[in-house]
Amino acid sequence: MVRAMEKQAKNIAKLAVILGATALVAGCARMDIGTSRTTYASNNSASAAVSTSTPTVRAAPSDEFQSGEILAFLKPEAASLLSAKETSEAASAQYYALQFGRVGAFRTWQGDSEATGEVTVGPYIKVNGRDCREFTHTVIISGKRYVSTGTACRVNNGEWKVETV
Fold first, then answer.
1. I want to staple 74 with a disulfide (CB 3.0 to 4.6 A). Which of 79, 112, 115, 143 is the partner?
2. Which residues have CB under 8 Å from 9's CB, separation 6+?
3. What values do phi and psi take at 67, rounded to 5?
4. Domain of life, per the record (predicted)?
5. 152 backbone dihedrals φ, ψ, rounded to 5°
6. What domain count does the chain have?
């Protein structure tokens, strides 16, 4: 009986270590290299452990993500004014906000000229078995604000597809 209780205590300790490590990793954010300014939500491990869905983690957006359909989140009049680097920064911020962002936390980006932007996302919701999130993406170019709101859903390959804007 004592041996069984010792074994159970060891298993509980192992589980606590695993859950603690998982919460710590879940609170980590991508480290940007370069000139972009990215704002992260608090890395509170208690809130990181609470989730309505377990998102699939991908290392980084693919080239298809950066240049493809996900750019539908930008207002066309704003997109036409952005440089390639700014478009990439906006796409990266959009991806990481959808993939890893905490509800209401701002993910900001800085372009190579006067363009800046920020993305906020809502909670994960299930729509036809897919993870979806509402988003708001604000782009500011020369003091003018372009605001897009919509819903994006994760498709089978793990990429995000804008469903409504």
1. 79
2. none
3. -115, 0
4. Bacteria
5. -125, 145
6. 1
> What CA–CA distances, in Å, run from 90 to 14, 49, 74, 96, 129?
41, 28, 8, 10, 27
- Burial class of residue 23 (count of CB atoms within 10 Å of its CB; 0-12, 13-18, 19+): middle
> Using alpha carbons only, what angle is made at residue 125 by residues 151 and 46, rounded to the nearest 5 degrees?
115
Pick the closest to residue 40 from 26, 54, 51, 50 (CA basis): 26
What is the SS3 assignment for 126?
A: strand
Res 41: pLDDT: 36
Q: How many CA atoms lie within 13 A of 140 on its CB side?
A: 9
DSSP type of residue 34 = S
Top pLDDT among 74 and 115 is at: 115
Which token pair is 97? 């906000």
What distance, in Å, lies between the first and last C-alpha atoms of the chain? 62
pTM score above 0.70: no
- Which 3 state secondary structure label does DSSP give 60? coil
Q: Which residues contact 127 (CB under 8 A, 6 or more apart)?
A: 151, 153, 163
Residue 122's domain comprises: 2-164
**What six digits make up the tokens of 77?**
């009049």
